[in-house]
Amino acid sequence: MKTVIIGANHAGIAAANTLLDNYPEQKVVMIDRNSNLSYLGCGTALWVGRQIDSYENLFYTNREAFEAKGADIRMETTVKKIDFEGKKIFCESLDGATFEESYDKLILATGSLPIAPQIPGSDLEGISFLKLFQDGQEVDRQISDPAVKNVAVIGAGYIGVEIAEAAKRRGKEVRLFDVASTSLASYYDPWFSKDMDENLKKNGVETHYGERATAYKGSKHVEAVVTDKGEYPADLVINAIGFIPNTGLGKEHLECFGNGAYRVDSHQKTSDPDVYAVGDCATIYSNALRAETYIALATNAVRSGIVAGHNVGGTELESIGVQGSNGISIFGYNMVSTGLSVNMAEKNGLKVEYTDFEDLQRPGFMKHNAKVKIRIVYEKESRRVVGAQMASEEDISMGIHMFSLAIEEGVTIDKLKLLDIFFLPHFNQPYNYITMAALGAK
């Protein structure tokens, strides 16, 4: 059995490892147009902001590791076309040589592409994206240039907020723009995101919300960002608006979701029984929505790759769905969430209630302490938990995993009211904030 995997980042790597480690009869061919694989893009801001010493450890595996397992790897190779009927892949290597690759099963792990707004001046030098390792190298090179004093970040999602922090840590004047009214609007309700906005401003990031970039100005290199509300100096622009599924190879043949992602079943199988899709190019099942959706996260990519690998290898395995758990830490302020915010639940037609609570993490007599806030979102009629958000200067991140499982299992808010949560002053309060939030539900 010959399986070809197109795309060798998180999802493709997980699928390849699953096949190579468990199914010795499989011949695995990996094709990727990049010169490297396994880059943890979520660490780019840590590297650019010099919170870590170098980028080397952001690569968690390499070509040699897969070749040692018996994989045939074709790096710096572009797939030009796929003949799905004939099960043939037409490729072109970096030197221009062309060749064909046949397959019994095909796994598409082509990921996503950064959204690139086509506005006046978008072809100027000094306008960067953050996706590949090479993008991170270019942003780091420019931020290291003393002539670059003003940095404009377009998009205040996770990547935008993180790279804004990194640029500020490098001593730049940073302006952060978004059309939404707060940062992180896709993940958090304003009760949380406004705290992050204050945190950014307190640390010197100039925020511009409710503003849309309409043009870039400059002769050859960017010099300014123009929005619908003003004009601002910029020696470097970093676009972090978001991503779209990279599905150009199969969109004419395979059934696609509304945003263009390949539609897959619980086995990661597409509408073609011999083709699987994993990671950012594919849909995913949301346990909060109880419906098919699109959530581009590295953790989801890895899980989908494992599921596809086992199914291709001959072991039937169903995905259990996801909650879209995520987190961020900016200038020492930590926020984590899973499932749906109130805003996103209502956008998706769910009628929900929520309960909030805010307190110190530990009893007041403890010297090391900080405030913590929590919101639990639950469906009005069924009372099942569909989301949670938590924030603190403490590391409260592990708590969100319990809510992830609660959403997956359909646990109601009432089940949490008397949940057995231990108490010790070193860790928490006798009236735990999770318990208190649950007891506060209507």
Structure summary:
With 442 residues, this protein is of the alpha/beta class. Helices cover 23% and strands 28% of the residues. It has helices at 10-22, 44-48, 63-68, 133-143, 158-169, 190-202, 298-313, 342-347, 399-409, 433-439, and strands at residues 2-6, 27-31, 72-74, 77-83, 88-93, 98-102, 105-108, 112-114, 127-129, 150-154, 173-178, 205-209, 213-217, 224-227, 231-233, 236-239, 243-245, 275-277, 284-286, 291-293, 326-330, 333-339, 352-360, 371-379, 385-392.
**Proportion of beta-strand residues:** 25-35%
Q: Given the structure, what is the number of helices?
A: 10
What's the number of domains? 3
Cross-sheet strand order for the largest sheet: 3-2-1-7-18
What is the CATH architecture annotation of the largest domain? 3-Layer(bba) Sandwich
**What is the CA-based Rg, rounded?**
23 Å
Q: Which CATH C-level class of the largest domain is it?
A: Alpha Beta
Q: Report, as a whole number of angstroms, the end-to-end distance.
A: 56 Å
Please, what is the CATH homologous superfamily of the largest domain?
FAD/NAD(P)-binding domain
Q: Uncertain spans, ≥5 residues at pLDDT below 50?
A: none
Number of strands: 25
Principal-axis shape: globular
> Biggest β-sheet, characterized?
5 strands, parallel
Average pLDDT: 97
CATH topology of the largest domain: FAD/NAD(P)-binding domain
Structural class: alpha/beta
Q: In which range does the helix fraction lie?
A: 10-25%
Summarize the structure in words.
- It is a single chain.
- The chain is an alpha/beta fold and 442 residues long.
- It folds into three domains: 2-113 and 244-313, FAD/NAD(P)-binding domain; 116-241, FAD/NAD(P)-binding domain, CATH 3.50.50; 336-439, Enolase-like, domain 1 (2-Layer Sandwich).
- Helix content is 23%, strand content 28%.
- It contains ten helices and 25 strands.
- It has helices spanning 10-22, 44-48, 63-68, 133-143, 158-169, 190-202, 298-313, 342-347, 399-409, 433-439, and strands at 2-6, 27-31, 72-74, 77-83, 88-93, 98-102, 105-108, 112-114, 127-129, 150-154, 173-178, 205-209, 213-217, 224-227, 231-233, 236-239, 243-245, 275-277, 284-286, 291-293, 326-330, 333-339, 352-360, 371-379, 385-392.
- It has a five-stranded parallel β-sheet with strand order 3-2-1-7-18. A five-stranded parallel β-sheet has the order 9-16-10-11-12. Strands 21-22-25-24-23 form a five-stranded antiparallel β-sheet, with helices on both faces.
- Strand 5 (88-93) and strand 6 (98-102) form a beta hairpin.
- Helix 1 (10-22) packs parallel to helix 7.
- The longest helix is centred in the last third of the chain and has 16 residues, at 298-313.
- The protein is globular and about 70 Å long.
